[in-house]
Amino acid sequence: MPKKVELEGGGRAPKGHFVVYVGNEMKRFVVPTSYLKNPIFQKLLDKAAEEFGFDNQNGIVLPCDESTFNRVTAFLAKHDS
């Protein structure tokens, strides 16, 4: 069964997941840590590091809009093993 990306209001991410913020509205998403090994997701993280640096106090902010993020995570959910 594919892993699902969840939109959460706050608090800590459950075990095996981490939080990212997406878009101008900084929507919070909880994603599985398995995405960290995927080259597509790694590119997003590289772009985040280039744009925001590693000292960002806002957590992991991905430099893409919400619809792009949803397309990427839908693809990853289908192809994540």
Order of helices and strands: EEEHEH
Class from helix and strand fractions: alpha+beta
Rg, Å, rounded = 12 Å
- The averaged pLDDT comes out at 86
Q: What's the end-to-end separation, in Å? A: 9 Å
- Low-confidence sequence ranges: none
How many individual β-strands? 4
> What share of the residues does DSSP label as strand, in percent?
15-25%
Q: Helical proportion?
A: 25-40%
Largest sheet: 4 strands, mixed
Shape descriptor reads globular
Q: Main sheet: which strands, in order across?
A: 1-3-2-4
Please count the helical segments.
2
Oligomer: single chain
Question: How is this structure best described in words?
Answer:
- This protein has a domain at 53-80.
- Helices cover 35% and strands 21% of the residues.
- The protein contains two helices and four strands.
- It has a four-stranded mixed β-sheet.
- This is SAUR family protein.
- Belongs to the ARG7 family.
- It comes from Salix brachista.
